[in-house]
Amino acid sequence: MSETEEFESDAMSVSARLAAEALIVDVEGFEGPLDLLLTLSRTQKVDLRKISVLELAEQYLGFVEKARHLRIELAADYLVMAAWLAFLKSRLLLPPDPTEDGPSGEELAAHLAFQLERLQAMRDVAAKLMARDQLGRDFFARGIPEDVTRVRRVTYTANLLDLMQGYARIRTKDEFRPFVMDRDAVMTMEQALDRMRGLIGYAGDWTDLTSYLPEGWETDPVRRRSATAANFAATLELAKRGAIELRQGEIFAPIQIRRKPNDG
Amino acid sequence: MTDDVTRDESVAQNHDDKRDNDSLFEAPPMGEQERMVEAILFASAEPVTVKELEGRMPHGSDAAEALVYLRKRYEGRGVSVVKVGDAWAIRTAPDLGYLMQKETVETRKLSRAAIETLAIIAYHQPVTRAEIEEIRGVSVSRGTIDQLIEMEWIRFGRRRMTPGRPVTFVVTSEFLDHFGLESARDLPGLKELRSAGLLESRPPPGAMPGPETEDEDESPEGQSELFED
Amino acid sequence: MTDDVTRDESVAQNHDDKRDNDSLFEAPPMGEQERMVEAILFASAEPVTVKELEGRMPHGSDAAEALVYLRKRYEGRGVSVVKVGDAWAIRTAPDLGYLMQKETVETRKLSRAAIETLAIIAYHQPVTRAEIEEIRGVSVSRGTIDQLIEMEWIRFGRRRMTPGRPVTFVVTSEFLDHFGLESARDLPGLKELRSAGLLESRPPPGAMPGPETEDEDESPEGQSELFED
Known about the structure:
The complex is a heterotrimer, with one copy of chain A and two copies of chain B.
Chain A: H1 14-24, H2 33-41, H3 53-69, H4 76-93, H5 105-130, E1 153-157, H6 160-175, H7 189-200, E2 207-208, H8 221-240, E3 244-248, E4 255-259
Antiparallel strand pairs in A: 2-4, 3-4
Helix pairs in contact in A: 2-3, 2-5, 3-4, 4-5, 7-8
Chain B: H1 2-17, H2 30-43, E1 48-49, H3 50-56, H4 63-73, E2 79-84, E3 87-92, H5 112-124, E4 127-128, H6 129-136, H7 144-150, E5 154-156, E6 168-171, H8 173-178, H9 190-195
Antiparallel strand pairs in B: 1-3, 2-3, 4-6, 5-6
Helix pairs in contact in B: 2-4, 5-7
Protein name (chain A): Segregation and condensation protein A
Pfam families (chain A): SMC_ScpA
InterPro entries (chain A): ScpA
């Protein structure tokens, strides 16, 4: 980022600008606000346990202010942290409000210090870990592992990644499927016909067609609509075959059906 | 897998010798057992467990004892007998690494994020993704976990019994092997970290800003109200 | 170690003979050279010639002499230093060859069909063959199931209490062992696969069921038409 030309150097001296930039230019290099806070805390030159969180908050807010001045856009989480630190600062400075519950400023500050110390500790041990002797770099395994070949056997193997990717491959097929009707909400006429044939034998009297809706299909509107249509079509089919009679008192009145008397 | 077959075969052979009781069977002399362990460990590039060793050795063998002698025998030599988790391997002495340029395998350079994530998993295991993010203060980038799994340095542990049952990560024995660790307890600085309380999971008091996770359910709760203005 | 001392003396003697050519650098003591040869032979993927050994050892080293000592040291051990053509290698002692059956195994990658079948069983167990076919969208060959059973990664579960009482398949503890899982429930869900970067992250069209529901979903119905063509 060499955007120096773009800045108007009105308010700041060249040296001040350079100093601000030295920190800011590298925003990309920070791994998030906590990392930046950790870097800032080093300027206090004290043990992390003795760090002044208040001072740190001010440093951070100063940083954000400078970034704004230099027209560097900070990612949202940096601004979230700034807002929180401003809140923390006010909690630390103002006398505690007894009506307010939630953690005190000191508790929040202590946790932030803990987070910084923990992050620093993890960095330190990560470095220690990587500095260890490593297999294939500092020490080595057997170069000719498969020695005596008397019986050749083939085994097949796979690792977890293969397994998960295989599963993902199958399952993502669904996401790109062409539009199809989901069968579980659709009743076909054939299904209704099969059902009606069985039921109609018991119903000698006029019965409301809606009472033939199968269980589990009466409440969900989508399923109900499908079942009603299928039932109606099936009734027409049965009537056509002469198995049942149909009647309807008036338009939109309930449709009733019964077994054809002479049939049984 | 296959060693089961081998084991079964050797068991079958031993059946004849084994008359009434295991104790009646005579195991080979310890010197012989030591040779066997030596041969098996030399032949394998991967660490071999005591159980596997005994499965391949004649019935009644005591691989653990043979290992004690073997380990001693190789002290100060060009190769040494090392413990990896609950398994054993022979590895070249680290001080001779410089002779081995030809054998050096180019490992993929790990990013700083990957190294930190690995260290957090090693020291905090089993650890969830949300916890890793809490510690680092940023979200774990796509592919970081993937890369560590692919290198077989981490694997899935038990799911955490908390809402959402998030998966956890732990380090593998390949990880231990790679860094020459006998067990995860031997991680450098582990004791100090623990006594400093830096490995405790301390939930943030009330509203603390955390990384923005992609998975809503995993993100630390309670931060949104505070910053909504 | 007294024999090291004797060896050092003999090196000193040799030094006198070699004075004329390369006396600029002092070669390491013979004990050290022996360690080096040992480490190189151990780690090398191929037998190594004396010339190659010396090319890798510090200037002035005498690999041939170090080999004499090393060879002697391994006499009667579980492995021995042998000459292969004009090069040297460490090999299992011939009388222990029978222990090496495990090392004679050739490993091949499991076929895609087998991996997918295995994955479906792992995620949906207990699952019938018909259900596997419905999820995969293609028929599952008898050989694939047989192979997975033979590998002891899957086994028969309870029969399903539906017409025909079809057999179901479940994964075995060997499977969990191999894949480093504590239980099949620890397998990551679709959402987690996606966030770990293992899945192309594309917003699914419409409402997609989350990973939890999919885990429970034993046989997704109503999609058979889709896979039938």
